[in-house]
């Protein structure tokens, strides 16, 4: 049943599926891979030396290098103008590219048109599996690195990933280029396997084949594409071996099996494989410098450290900051200073413009007028990840966790800015990579412990209770070792006890020297912990001062309770 | 991990169980493939395994299905004749190179067939036939018309005429009958078969001194040709030459007549299908088709074939069915030549075929292992193909 070609095609199918996995894992749906593969196949067939002259293996190796380069270049050229597209729009744009390539190949003089070019057969099952092993190795080793986690974070929530300091555009383009390189490998292997490279083999059907293989296998585990390809390649073989009559019944049965897999295993065949992540043992570390009460200042020398502004320095200065949405003035001419070590409360009725204000402060929204200068950057003009890199970290009013990642992984992503890139060193198994990953894990575990969630480290973020999700967001924001921490309604949905613990935590952060900006509806909580309170109504600051003074201010009372009729 | 293991275990278990249930394997031939007697008296003990790799599903499914019908009819008639029994295995390559290659590997290895028929498309032929060549299994291509198919090796034969054997004759005939001086050429450029056909048309038109007023390209998926046909009409040529598949031929011919293009339409092998008259109706009248198979031929083999096919399958055969039918008959001739169903004997037998009567006419396989037989130029008249004089 398993003939030579079946074994080869399992490997080829898996490699092609990996080119979809590369982008799906980063949350992008691209259908251009067949286009990259055909660009690579034709380029290498035309440019690679004759196997009769340099030998089979040498010719194939050169062809693979050419193909990988061609695939990458094609992906970058396509990626630069299309990377701002999302979801179905990116899929359509990339599909358009693949179709354009196909039409070009059909009509160009040197491609042999629909009849294609003849290619010597060089690829053996062993060669195909060696290339597959290399590709799989890349995805295996890159998964648990700073780069790999950043891609997963982008897949789960792009906005939050950016707020954690991840350069979303660059990472997305990186994933896209990887997809191009892997698709290029596939195109070359395909050509040197089937003896003929023709445009028909890189059409829409091929793209859908690759996508289906990746989805059936699963897009969150690196073995997914291999499992998917084995499954789909073997189905027709099994049917033949069983003596199912050739004809429509076979594709029909294959279609049904596909349906069953997608219905009952929505994460793909490999989706059930548990993700393993070891939680570092914080207490058992004899050599660790960490004290038992935790804290962000003792994270060891393995992490990048940030120069924090001395207590009392201005970390953020807003002047005349306004935001209009059409005719709605969400924020009007706000002037505000936030200092290190200060816990500043921002309150106001619903729709007062609090969230818009902090969105401008963290760089998510550009102001209509005025400036927000934060830790040396101008928010709104600098991209979100730059603002985060300057030392601004935040939580969101509605939890924006990376739902399919564990709590610990969420916090690891939060540590993006303070950990070192380990991808290249992990590929080479350098011990320093292991040390750096360990340091990142320890740092993340400490942040989790600080919010009291170490026990839930391996739980999926999406499966946590609402209150735990709010605390996890704080841990994730803390992991970035920020100078300014923005908390957007962290106590929402918490009970009295939880809120009390939270208040204690927030106060201790400010006492450590952080600047904390707290948006909260719970006026009691604000009065209890804040040094200073700013009250916003209809986008304007109506009061500012010590909590007790502000609470007594008639304008504030009016804003909250309304005037007597 | 354990889950994946379970899936595979389950799949394997199912395979093994069901494979055990499906009775007996294919009868592999030992020495008993060599029989006694010669020619019509030849008797071989065990059945001769014949594999066919056809596109029963996928893009080329309509051709593959015709071919299967032709082969099944031939196998039935040969087995009824006695002496040599043929065990025909029809496999589907799904119009997919991966399946085509896998099927060829299985036919040459496990199943141990003596000869392979197919595959349906020329591109598939270039991808799969070298496997049979390497394994020393003779291949008879029954529908590959591209150049270079038989150049792949001395085990590769074909009974289908190449475009180069049919089209020049068609163009010459059209010039003779209609006195054509100029032509508009249309072809679908995303299909290997029709593209190759176009190239030969272009050469033939040039050789006959017919001026090409306009060359228009379309896609196999197109169904609306009005814009192109308007352009073609404006060129005001004496002929409309089309290299397209039957799926394109029907709407193209219909729309051409609707637009008032009444010059003769000349088509290639793709047009040689009774569906043209069935679906295009009156519009098909006057369409000239160069073909490898003269469906109107009154030679005894063809007359019987038309009647038997109609009886077995309830429809009229097309060229693909005729070539498939002729293919298995030729294999029978080759087997009986030395009364052996072994691979090399069949290979030698196919090489010696010379002037054998078949539904395609008297057929010879030349030194290049290509078929030679009379091609025919037909015209649609009163809803049937008749020879154009």
UniProtKB/TrEMBL annotation, chain A:
<feature type="transmembrane region" description="Helical">
    <location>
        <begin position="247"/>
        <end position="269"/>
    </location>
</feature>
<dbReference type="InterPro" id="IPR027417">
    <property type="entry name" value="P-loop_NTPase"/>
</dbReference>
<feature type="transmembrane region" description="Helical">
    <location>
        <begin position="122"/>
        <end position="140"/>
    </location>
</feature>
<feature type="domain" description="ABC transporter">
    <location>
        <begin position="316"/>
        <end position="563"/>
    </location>
</feature>
<dbReference type="InterPro" id="IPR043428">
    <property type="entry name" value="LivM-like"/>
</dbReference>
<feature type="transmembrane region" description="Helical">
    <location>
        <begin position="173"/>
        <end position="192"/>
    </location>
</feature>
<feature type="transmembrane region" description="Helical">
    <location>
        <begin position="212"/>
        <end position="235"/>
    </location>
</feature>
<keyword id="KW-1003">Cell membrane</keyword>
<keyword id="KW-0067">ATP-binding</keyword>
<dbReference type="InterPro" id="IPR051120">
    <property type="entry name" value="ABC_AA/LPS_Transport"/>
</dbReference>
<feature type="transmembrane region" description="Helical">
    <location>
        <begin position="87"/>
        <end position="110"/>
    </location>
</feature>
<feature type="transmembrane region" description="Helical">
    <location>
        <begin position="60"/>
        <end position="80"/>
    </location>
</feature>
<dbReference type="InterPro" id="IPR032823">
    <property type="entry name" value="BCA_ABC_TP_C"/>
</dbReference>
<dbReference type="InterPro" id="IPR017871">
    <property type="entry name" value="ABC_transporter-like_CS"/>
</dbReference>
<dbReference type="InterPro" id="IPR003593">
    <property type="entry name" value="AAA+_ATPase"/>
</dbReference>
<keyword id="KW-0472">Membrane</keyword>
<keyword id="KW-0813">Transport</keyword>
<dbReference type="Pfam" id="PF00005">
    <property type="entry name" value="ABC_tran"/>
</dbReference>
<dbReference type="Pfam" id="PF02653">
    <property type="entry name" value="BPD_transp_2"/>
</dbReference>
<protein>
    <submittedName>
        <fullName>Branched-chain amino acid ABC transporter ATP-binding protein/permease</fullName>
    </submittedName>
</protein>
<dbReference type="InterPro" id="IPR001851">
    <property type="entry name" value="ABC_transp_permease"/>
</dbReference>
<feature type="region of interest" description="Disordered">
    <location>
        <begin position="281"/>
        <end position="308"/>
    </location>
</feature>
UniProtKB/TrEMBL annotation, chain B:
<keyword id="KW-0732">Signal</keyword>
<keyword id="KW-0813">Transport</keyword>
<dbReference type="InterPro" id="IPR051010">
    <property type="entry name" value="BCAA_transport"/>
</dbReference>
<comment type="similarity">
    <text>Belongs to the leucine-binding protein family.</text>
</comment>
<dbReference type="InterPro" id="IPR000709">
    <property type="entry name" value="Leu_Ile_Val-bd"/>
</dbReference>
<dbReference type="InterPro" id="IPR028081">
    <property type="entry name" value="Leu-bd"/>
</dbReference>
<dbReference type="InterPro" id="IPR028082">
    <property type="entry name" value="Peripla_BP_I"/>
</dbReference>
<keyword id="KW-0029">Amino-acid transport</keyword>
<feature type="domain" description="Leucine-binding protein">
    <location>
        <begin position="47"/>
        <end position="377"/>
    </location>
</feature>
<dbReference type="Pfam" id="PF13458">
    <property type="entry name" value="Peripla_BP_6"/>
</dbReference>
<feature type="signal peptide">
    <location>
        <begin position="1"/>
        <end position="19"/>
    </location>
</feature>
<protein>
    <recommendedName>
        <fullName>Leucine-binding protein domain-containing protein</fullName>
    </recommendedName>
</protein>
């Amino acid at each position: 049943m398993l003939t030579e070609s079946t074994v080869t095609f399992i490997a080829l199918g898996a490699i092609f599926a990996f080119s979809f996995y590369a982008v799906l894992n980063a949350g992008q749906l691209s259908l251009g891979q067949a286009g990259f593969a055909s660009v690579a196949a034709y380029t290498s067939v035309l440019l690679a030396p004759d196997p009769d002259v340099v030998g089979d293996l040498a010719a194939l190796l050169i062809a693979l290098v050419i193909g990988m380069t061609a695939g990458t270049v094609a992906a970058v050229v396509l990626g630069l103008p299309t990377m701002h597209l999302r979801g179905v729009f990116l899929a359509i744009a990339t599909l358009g590219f693949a179709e354009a390539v196909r039409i070009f190949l059909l009509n160009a003089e040197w491609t042999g048109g629909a009849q294609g070019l003849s290619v010597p057969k060089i690829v053996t099952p062993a060669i195909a599996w060696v290339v597959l092993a290399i590709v799989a190795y890349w995805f295996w080793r890159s998964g648990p690195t700073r780069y790999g986690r950043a891609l997963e974070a982008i897949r789960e929530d792009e906005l939050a990933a950016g707020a954690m300091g991840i350069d979303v555009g660059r990472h997305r383009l990186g994933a896209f280029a990887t997809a191009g390189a892997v698709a290029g490998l596939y195109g070359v292997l395909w050509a040197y396997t089937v003896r003929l490279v023709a445009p028909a083999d890189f059409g829409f059907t091929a793209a859908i084949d690759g996508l289906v293989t990746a989805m059936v296998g699963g897009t969150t585990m690196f073995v997914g594409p291999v499992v998917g390809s084995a499954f789909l390649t073997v189905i027709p073989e099994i049917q033949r071996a069983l003596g199912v009559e050739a004809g429509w019944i076979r594709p029909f049965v294959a279609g049904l099996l596909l349906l069953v897999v997608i219905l009952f295993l929505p994460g793909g065949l490999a989706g059930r494989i548990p993700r393993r992540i070891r939680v570092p043992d914080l207490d058992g570390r004899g050599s660790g410098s960490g004290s038992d009460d935790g804290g962000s200042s003792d994270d060891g020398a393995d992490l990048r450290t940030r120069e924090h502004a001395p207590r009392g320095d201005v970390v953020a200065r807003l002047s005349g900051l306004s935001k209009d949405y059409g005719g709605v003035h969400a924020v009007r001419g706000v002037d505000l200073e936030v200092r290190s070590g200060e816990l500043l409360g921002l309150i106001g009725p619903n729709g007062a413009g609090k969230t818009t204000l902090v969105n401008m402060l963290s760089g998510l929204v550009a102001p209509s007028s005025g400036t927000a200068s934060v830790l040396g950057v101008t928010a709104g003009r600098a991209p979100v990840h730059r603002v985060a890199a300057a030392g601004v970290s935040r939580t969101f009013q509605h939890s924006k966790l990376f739902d399919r990642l564990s709590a610990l992984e969420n916090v690891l992503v939060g540590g993006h800015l303070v950990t070192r890139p380990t991808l290249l060193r992990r590929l080479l198994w350098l011990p320093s990579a292991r040390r750096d990953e360990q340091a990142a894990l320890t740092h993340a575990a400490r942040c989790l412990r600080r919010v009291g969630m170490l026990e839930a480290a391996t739980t999926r973020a999406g499966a946590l209770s609402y209150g735990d999700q709010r605390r996890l967001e704080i841990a994730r924001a803390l992991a970035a070792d920020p100078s300014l921490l923005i908390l957007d309604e962290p106590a929402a949905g918490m009970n009295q006890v939880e809120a009390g613990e939270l208040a204690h935590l927030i106060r201790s952060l400010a006492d450590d020297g952080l600047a904390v900006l707290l948006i909260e509806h719970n006026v009691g909580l604000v009065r209890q912990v804040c040094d200073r309170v700013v009250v916003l109504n209809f986008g304007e600051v109506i009061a500012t001062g010590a909590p007790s003074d502000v609470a007594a201010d008639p304008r504030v009372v009016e804003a909250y309770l309304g005037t007597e009729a | 991990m354990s889950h994946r293991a379970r899936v595979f275990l389950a799949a394997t278990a199912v395979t093994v169980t069901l494979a055990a249930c499906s009775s007996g394997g294919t009868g592999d031939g030992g020495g008993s493939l060599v029989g006694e007697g010669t020619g019509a008296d030849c008797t071989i003990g065990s059945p001769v395994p014949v594999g066919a790799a056809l596109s029963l599903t996928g893009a080329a499914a309509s051709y593959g299905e015709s071919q299967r019908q032709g082969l099944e009819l031939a196998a039935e008639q040969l087995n009824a004749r006695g002496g040599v029994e043929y065990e025909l295995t029809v496999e589907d390559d799904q119009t997919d190179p991966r399946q085509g290659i896998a099927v060829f590997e299985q036919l040459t290895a496990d199943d141990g067939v003596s000869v392979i028929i197919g595959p349906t498309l020329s591109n598939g032929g270039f991808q799969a036939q070298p496997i049979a060549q390497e394994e020393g299994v003779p291949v008879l291509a029954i529908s590959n018309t591209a150049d270079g198919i038989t150049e792949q090796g001395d085990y590769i034969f074909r009974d289908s005429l190449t475009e180069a054997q049919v089209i020049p004759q068609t163009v010459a005939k059209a010039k003779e009958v209609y006195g054509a001086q100029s032509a508009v050429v249309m072809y679908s450029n995303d299909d290997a078969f029709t593209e190759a056909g176009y190239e030969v048309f272009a050469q033939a038109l040039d050789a006959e001194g017919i001026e090409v007023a306009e060359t228009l390209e379309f896609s196999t998926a197109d169904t609306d040709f009005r814009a192109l046909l308007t352009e073609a009409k404006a060129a005001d040529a004496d002929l409309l030459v089309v290299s397209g598949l039957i799926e394109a031929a029907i709407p193209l011919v219909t729309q051409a007549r609707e637009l008032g293009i009444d010059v003769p339409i000349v088509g290639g092998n793709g047009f040689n299908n009774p569906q043209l008259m069935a679906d295009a109706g009156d519009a098909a009248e006057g369409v000239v088709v160069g073909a490898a198979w003269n469906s109107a031929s009154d030679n005894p083999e063809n007359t019987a074939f038309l009647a038997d096919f109609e009886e077995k399958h309830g429809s009229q055969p097309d060229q693909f069915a005729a070539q498939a039918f002729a293919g298995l008959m030729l294999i029978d001739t080759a087997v009986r030549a030395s009364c052996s169903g072994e691979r090399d004997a069949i290979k030698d037998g196919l090489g010696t075929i010379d002037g054998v009567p078949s539904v395609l006419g008297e057929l010879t396989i030349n030194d290049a292992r290509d078929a030679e037989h009379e091609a025919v130029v037909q015209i649609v008249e009163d809803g049937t193909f008749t020879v154009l004089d």
